[in-house]
Amino acid sequence: MEKLSEDQIDKKLAKLDGWKYSKNAIHTSFQFENFKDAFTVMTRIAFEAEAQQHHPNWGNVYNELEISLSTHDADGVTEKDFKLAQAIEEIIEAG
Amino acid sequence: MEKLSEDQIDKKLAKLDGWKYSKNAIHTSFQFENFKDAFTVMTRIAFEAEAQQHHPNWGNVYNELEISLSTHDADGVTEKDFKLAQAIEEIIEAG
């Protein structure tokens, strides 16, 4: 899986909602009503990540969720990250 | 819920396994076989945290889990944090 250029990343980010590129990864954050809602979404994302065999770097405090995606083997952002980002967007929109 | 002194925290930490105090919080980390195992434990912890109405500041990357506990309202570590830490220890030991 090939590392994308910053130009390629910018074009792909334009198709997502609220993601930013920095430090060789793409990042987003979400705020929910409470912990239960945050963890419910995390669980949906966990199943999707496991199915894609590509996993997020993420952190949660109460109703806040921060997610960073990068591809370790490529030392940067690849199509894998955008595939998972797209799935996360769909989970959030469905939630 | 009253903020504990560093002496009180040290005594309580001695009864736990692998937790450290720094920056007004207690911290630990765990490593699992894979993401699924890590998230399974996170789910158990999430139910316990919700039951206690006291939630962790935590982050996960693949098989690694980092947890910090503090009590926002007390601006430090309280009995609530040690109660949740104890429950987390039990979940880990049972896992």
UniProtKB/TrEMBL annotation, chains A, B:
<comment type="similarity">
    <text>Belongs to the pterin-4-alpha-carbinolamine dehydratase family.</text>
</comment>
<dbReference type="InterPro" id="IPR001533">
    <property type="entry name" value="Pterin_deHydtase"/>
</dbReference>
<dbReference type="Pfam" id="PF01329">
    <property type="entry name" value="Pterin_4a"/>
</dbReference>
<protein>
    <recommendedName>
        <fullName>Putative pterin-4-alpha-carbinolamine dehydratase</fullName>
        <ecNumber>4.2.1.96</ecNumber>
    </recommendedName>
</protein>
<dbReference type="InterPro" id="IPR036428">
    <property type="entry name" value="PCD_sf"/>
</dbReference>
<keyword id="KW-0456">Lyase</keyword>
<dbReference type="GO" id="GO:0008124">
    <property type="term" value="F:4-alpha-hydroxytetrahydrobiopterin dehydratase activity"/>
</dbReference>
